[in-house]
Specification:
The chain is an alpha/beta fold. It folds into three domains: 140 residues, Conserved hypothetical protein from pyrococcus furiosus pfu- 392566-001, ParB domain (Alpha-Beta Complex), CATH 3.90.1530.10; 133 residues, no CATH class; 124 residues, no CATH class. Helices cover 53% and strands 8% of the residues. The chain is built from 19 helices and eight strands. It has a five-stranded mixed beta sheet. It has a three-stranded antiparallel beta sheet with strand order 6-7-8. Helix 15 packs across helix 16, helix 16 runs antiparallel to helix 17 and helix 17 packs across helix 19. The protein starts with 5 loop residues before the first strand and ends with a helix.
């Protein structure tokens, strides 16, 4: 007697789409109709799934949930998108009328490098009702914690930091392949592993090239100050010209060659300066499109009126648990205008312990009997020498340790601890953080 549910590897050819799939508005008449309707409903999302499967295979921790059907076949209760993607990679012409020409080319290229699996991991249920509880848990959101709880922006950043980013040129290549416009030749070379990545890497090593393209590299992570649609213009051109051989390595051998090449780009092929963001974002986290003017003004008002020392968009991955707790209290819990003394003292603790951590980890030389200002200066100079901070980036840190500066780091924050008459406002503390944010991000990078 069969005990349900049970796990089994089932031949791909035996799986059938669920005609009662809730992703479809009506129940199709046939498997072919279901396939086309689901492909049309998913659009570019299906293409993204096809790309991921072609490159990495099926998710090994997410089996198909299936129900036995007549003739020794199985209805897929959960996994219809994946089954549709597999069918599309096997026979891309079946849904060619559901995509534009560029998407059809991309799908055919993916199909040319993809080998379908003979069987796939499944969990077999006796009845639909038995599977429903698990399907709803999978697709019903967090369900008060019983379902899949998504990561916050900070948790994503912490995961990236622990995993370590891909090399710069591979981050760019993946970004452009997902969202850019490439010729058939360049796309094919990206997908089959023959793209000349060393040439792309050579071009991106020059800061002037990165600046014109609207990107930079911070702690190994490619960041941008522009929306994705803007930064993709120049990056797509660069990747495509290297991929097709329009520009070869000989034309990019020296720094002067690379700068001359990037200066040949038209203004329309580079990010529009008017779309520049308030702060740099990782490529994957940048907004898709430029914000409307009204949205920019709203965002600016919200930023100026923040209630915490650390702005919500700041994301720093910190390993020592206690220091991470202090960081989160300054960012999420303490309302700085209500408790400026507590926030000021805690900010001083965070800055000094962060600086001490960097000094110890990097053996930074210090003068005799260093105070906080001297420690900050020594660390900033070390970061500048290692190219983690530029001279321009260093200016706000210099200002923050000047004795005569109103927002002086050492005098004001030390006095909060040792001087009974000392007061500080929430705006002072927010302004001081804004001066030091890049410095502190560089420390923890």
């Amino acid at each position: 007697m069969t005990t349900y549910p049970y796990a089994a590897d089932i031949e791909l050819a035996k799986l059938r789409l669920d005609l009662k799939n809730p992703r479809l508005a009506t129940e199709p008449d046939s498997q072919r109709d279901a396939f086309k309707e689901l492909a049309e409903a998913q659009g570019t999302k299906l293409l993204a799934l096809c790309t991921h499967i072609a490159r990495h295979g099926l998710n090994p921790v997410q089996p198909f949930l299936v129900l036995p059907d007549d003739d020794n076949q199985f209805i897929v209760l959960d996994g219809n998108r994946r089954l549709t993607a597999l069918r599309a990679l096997e026979q891309p012409d079946l849904i060619s009328d559901r995509f534009g020409e560029s998407e059809r080319r991309q799908l055919r290229q993916l199909a040319s490098i993809f080998t379908p699996p003979e069987d796939v991991p499944c969990v077999v249920f006796a009845k639909r009702d038995d599977a429903d509880i698990w399907i709803e848990l999978q697709h019903g959101g967090e369900s008060d914690g019983a379902g899949l709880v998504g990561w916050s922006a900070q948790q994503k950043a912490r995961h990236r930091a622990r995993r370590g980013p891909n090399p710069t040129h591979l981050q760019i290549l993946d970004f452009v392949r997902r969202g850019g416009t490439l010729s058939t030749e360049s796309a094919r070379r990206c997908d089959n592993g023959t793209f000349p990545v060393s040439t792309l890497d050579r071009a991106l090593t020059t800061p002037g090239v990165r600046e014109r393209l609207g990107i930079d590299v911070i702690a190994g992570q490619v960041v941008t100050n522009y929306p994705k649609t803007e930064v993709l213009k120049g990056l797509s051109k660069l990747v495509d010209e290297i991929g097709t051989g329009g520009v070869k390595v000989g034309a990019l051998m020296s720094v002067d060659n690379r700068l001359a090449y990037i200066r040949s780009y038209k203004a329309s092929e580079l990010p529009d300066p008017s779309t520049r963001l308030e702060s740099a974002e990782a490529l994957s986290d940048a907004p898709d499109r430029p914000a409307r003017q009204a949205d920019k003004q709203k965002e600016r008002r919200r930023s100026n009126a923040r209630t915490k020392v650390i702005p919500a968009e700041c994301s720093i991955a910190i390993n020592p648990a206690r220091l991470n707790d202090i960081y989160l209290e300054l960012k999420q819990k303490l309302r700085v205008d209500e408790v400026p003394n507590a926030a000021g003292v805690l900010l001083r603790v965070f800055v000094e312990l962060s600086v001490d951590q960097y000094i110890e980890a990097n053996a930074v030389p210090l003068p005799k009997n260093p105070n906080l200002a001297k420690k900050v200066t020594a660390v900033a100079e070390h970061l500048q020498a290692s190219s983690s901070m530029s001279e321009k980036d260093f200016i706000p840190v210099r200002e923050a340790v000047k004795p005569e500066d109103k927002l002086n780091l050492a005098t004001n924050l030390n006095a909060l601890v040792h001087n009974r008459q000392m007061t500080v406002s929430g705006n002072d503390l927010k302004a001081l953080w804004d001066r030091l944010q890049l410095f502190l991000e560089s420390i923890w990078a």
